Structures are given as structure tokens and as C-alpha cells.
Hints:
- There is one protein chain.
- The chain has eight helices and four strands; from the N terminus they run E-H-H-H-E-H-H-E-H-H-E-H.
- It is α/β, with parallel strands linked by helices.
- Strands 3-2-1-4 form a four-stranded parallel sheet, with helices on both faces.
Amino acid sequence: MKKEENINKWVIDASCASLLFLQEKSAKKVEEFFEALDEEQEVLAPSIWWYELGNVVSNAVKTNRIEANDAAEIFELWELLPITNDHQQNIYTIHNIYKLSKKTGLTVYDAAYLESAIRNKAGLATFDRELQDAAKKISIKLF
């Protein structure tokens, strides 16, 4: 990412990462995101990210978008991405996520990404329109 953006941390959601294997048109933009990161920048994902990615793979297999035997390879590829798990989970965190969910109208799952971005003073990499709208309202930088 360009230095002038002054974003040292990014939170990535499942809508963004899943494009890398679903061969969507937007996958190129996600590839460019990772290629543009410099050594000082960190990409974070709350724990829910892994479960959501697993669900995306499961649904892709069910709908024949990918072959079942491709799932393990996809998980291995995701493991290679330079992503740090944001393990900050306690009653205080879930309470903040819940409050954000109620304030923004987001699901608790999506609000977890927003909470992580706020707490880590990070930008947000998402293709989810509702999450983008909520982030804009509280001045979170979007990829």
C-alpha cells in the first residue's frame, strides 16, 4: 500500500479473501491488495474469519462452483497469506461487537470485523456493501 495512506494495519473479511479462489472478477483487486503491502503493514482477521471462509468453501462445493477435493488446497493457500489472527476475545470485546451490531444494523459476524478495525486502528478490506457503508460512517479507511 502507498505510504501516504498511513495505514499500518488492515482487517480483512471473508468476502475479500474468498474471491481469491472463487475466480471472481474482483480477485485481481484482492491480489493487488496483498502485492501492495509493505513490510510495515499487517493484515488482521478476527477468529470468525476462518469459520466464514470454511462456510464459503462448503457452499462453493455444494453449489458445484469448486470440486470437493479442491477444498484442502484452498485452505493450504489461505494459510500462506500474510494474515495475523486477531485473538482479542473476551466479554468486553463481544459486548462491543454486540453494541456495534445494534448501532449499525450489521450481523454480529460482520460487526466483529468492524470492531477489530476500530480497536486496532486499522483499515478494512471488504467487498460487503453493508460493512463498507458502516465503516464509512465511522471514518474507517476502506481498501
